[in-house]
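Subject: for your reference before the review

Hello V.,

The reviewers asked for a structural picture of the protein, and I figured it would be easier to keep everything in one thread rather than splitting it across files. Below is the amino acid sequence we used in the manuscript, unchanged from the supplementary table.
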Amino acid sequence: MHKPKLIILDEPTGGLDPLMQQTFFKLLREENEKGATVFMSSHILSEVEKLCDRVAIIKEGKTIALESIMTLKEKNHKRVHLELNTGIDAGVFKLSGITDVEIDGKSCSFLYAGNINGLMKLLSTMDLKNVSLGEPELEEIFYHYYEKEE
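And here is what came back from the structure prediction:
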């Protein structure tokens, strides 16, 4: 390859086996480190997350979000997983900002967007065995933007 300043790729890993994908990403990182801008279109969000610094979410030809991946993850939702010592009352999760509640016996998970203090107040009323808070997957954020636009 010559020394391009811009590399434009559309679904570049389609049909590549995992080993070739790793080699391909290594080559792209090397070109990026040499100063090339890599512009990639992909529906495989885990690849975008591995390779890109910024992401644009496009819906019906319009950019609806343009952020660094880190900012996109930080300013949006938190993924919350709970394990309780007792059963779970689904009615407890009516707090504004809680979405995508999934309950399985004494465990549940959901997305939360909002002031973390409100969530902590809610959690303090529960008989918790374990709690984990983390960043949602890029794919979850993507779907959130699409739902928000509808």
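For the response letter, the relevant points are probably these. The chain has five helices and eight strands. The CA atoms of residues 126 and 140 lie 26 Å apart.

Happy to draft the paragraph if you're swamped.

O.
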